[in-house]
Design brief:
Chain A is of the alpha+beta class. Helix content of chain A is 42%, strand content 20%. Chain A has 2 domains: 325 residues, Bira Bifunctional Protein, Domain 2 (BirA Bifunctional Protein, domain 2); 92 residues, Anticodon-binding domain (Rossmann fold). Chains A and B meet through helix 1, strand 1, strand 2, strand 3 and strand 4 of A and helix 1, strand 1, strand 2, strand 3 and strand 4 of B.
Amino acid sequence: MNKPSIPKGTRDFGHEETSRRNYIFNTIQSVFRLYGFQQIETPAMEQMSTLMGKYGEEGDKLLFRIQNSGEKAGEMPEKGLRYDLTVPFARYIVMHRQELTFPFKRFQIQPVWRADRPQKGRYREFYQCDADVIGTQSLVSESELIEIVKEVYRRLGLRVVMKINNRKILAGIAEYIGAPDKMTDITVAIDKLDKTGLEKVNEELMERGLSAESVARLQPILALSGTNEEKLQTIENLTRESETGKKGVEEIRTVFGLYNTTTREADNDSFSVELDLTLARGLNYYTGAIFEVKAKDVQIGSITGGGRYDNLTGIFGLPDVSGVGISFGADRIYDCLSTLDLFPSESAVQTQLLFAAMGEDEMRRALSWANKLRNAGNRVEVYPDLAKMKKQLGYADANHIPYAAIIGSDEMTSQTVTLKNMVTGEQRAMSYDELATFIKKNE
Amino acid sequence: MNKPSIPKGTRDFGHEETSRRNYIFNTIQSVFRLYGFQQIETPAMEQMSTLMGKYGEEGDKLLFRIQNSGEKAGEMPEKGLRYDLTVPFARYIVMHRQELTFPFKRFQIQPVWRADRPQKGRYREFYQCDADVIGTQSLVSESELIEIVKEVYRRLGLRVVMKINNRKILAGIAEYIGAPDKMTDITVAIDKLDKTGLEKVNEELMERGLSAESVARLQPILALSGTNEEKLQTIENLTRESETGKKGVEEIRTVFGLYNTTTREADNDSFSVELDLTLARGLNYYTGAIFEVKAKDVQIGSITGGGRYDNLTGIFGLPDVSGVGISFGADRIYDCLSTLDLFPSESAVQTQLLFAAMGEDEMRRALSWANKLRNAGNRVEVYPDLAKMKKQLGYADANHIPYAAIIGSDEMTSQTVTLKNMVTGEQRAMSYDELATFIKKNE
């Protein structure tokens, strides 16, 4: 028998990791609920026809296909594991549109699967935490998503920058430099600015067919700096001839305005919102705002992203449904909190008390007292075997159980337990009532 | 474009269903934690070598296999979706045994997948909620699992019978009737007693190769009745020649004794434990106690099951690890609670208040007040569009939001909102402070 293993890119989560992951999910979920988002769940497997062609050619290759064991090997499998939560959500809206009231605000926290090459921080099974508002073009939704991001990271104690862009601004710029059909090429190049530097980006733009003049006109955009408002003014001046560009500037101004009115406080060291034109993610389907969040104190990719899409459900035959959404990457957030040691110590739910019985009568009393304490809401264990004291206390130590209630023949006679503090080693005798009060107090 | 659909046997869960499912998961999980079980999670996909051959020939056919899109169609897929939580748990123990302290008490609440023919109440994706104690043969663990079952169903308000059997008793009976090698045949036949009746069962036993004498000796067992103790005495008398049988009777007596000592109360109308020899589930791997729970007031199969297995991890090269576990079937429990209307009304987390703004200034005030209320922990929405009042209030109605705070030009002047009770239709003007106090009080 070979040693068992798990598929590459997947992970087991022990008690502590699961508690910490739940802490992240619960934090995100509580904030979603503050804003009225409703939780839904969709199946892990979708029809292949639902998934194929939605993530580009590269994405199609990363889909996991599912086959019944009964099916013949060569037969085309018709099901696949979901690749994200967005396409299943679009499918959900189309299938359930008669039951839904729009605007529809939903959140969803479930795993997704991608046959990516596994590497540090990239897994084949990982969780997404998505919130989307569907059926309204209101920029109030964008503003609320910014607030949600701010509140989630405030609660998690993580300092972040939220970057915002708008596809319409990018389109306006493409028009301004005389290359309206080259928006994607421009943004792909812009996206590399951080990594490869200005010179290489300019070279790449030429290779992608932009004229020297277009590249020249683009330079002020690539060099953009200052406050959000200073940047917006520069862009506004440059793109004044483009209706789309003007609309983009106006949208971002409105969102900033709503956000500032609502929160009534300046950005601070822990959270800031920055206009960033190099942000060009998801251009295949974002049509307005584009969001991305980066941790300030950890070198890691984007930990949250999203944007507005005007035709999400069009692929399933329901056109003209606008939506805007945000997706938190729980695994990367986990890595950040872990690196910075930001998990609260109480994120793991521990047993409060272990009964250690030295004989059969003692065991019966331990079980009875344990049951009474549990009825009062305490988390209590009874060591199930009549093992040596050392072994029983070792179990308490290994499981971080703070107190052990020892019952031997003396304690049977005096109707007490000897309560041992597993950290300090202190011991004292306690009656049931004293024990119940003590455990309640030390919860 | 065809109308989108989901794979047969799978389901979407809307807001209300998700809330109700979470209510079940949270109830089960809280009770598991009271007894010190620690949560772990394993990946949805396992190596096919981990899964194959663990569920019998029939089970192998029900495995879903997973293929990367990149892999060639005819290539043997090496991964599969987990079929239950037990085999992945056994694999987990073997892989992580160096990090674990035994006895190890874990719980796990995750979906499993089976390519079963879908039918009412049987799905291809469904959740299991498992708790197991590994690394001890103590019958205290059996007793605790009974208590856990009792407490979970007490909290859910569902009246149940917990049936208990012991494989050793079945083995003793097989010896007594002179057919020690026919235990599986006997139990399969006994299992059908309820469905096909005594006559058919006796016929089937003969067909399976039991002599007329063996079948005759089995009759008192098939006719067993009375209290648990009366049944145990009958069995004890019949199987006195069998060491295994005697051990089985002793084990069940001990478990009943521990359970009765612990709970210090007789079984009642809501919960009872019954010795039931026709209970023969999972004999392929159970070696001691066997559990099954049935709802008293709903006609549905087993809603919880489990038992002791003495060699779970042996299949992965780690012999002699005894364990006992229980598995709650969340989907059937859902159906029971739903049929009996037992979900608490507050199981769905709803928005408490909707702001309905009549203009742009009003919207800005609504956002600002909403944000302050959220900072105080209230779940508040702002209708994102400047739609007609009727539409905005219709949204509150459809989403069961109990109060709407309307802001028009009058309310702007007086620095108030008009708070409307969406059920009674009552309205009254409120300042921010009044509103904050009111919402807090009506949480």
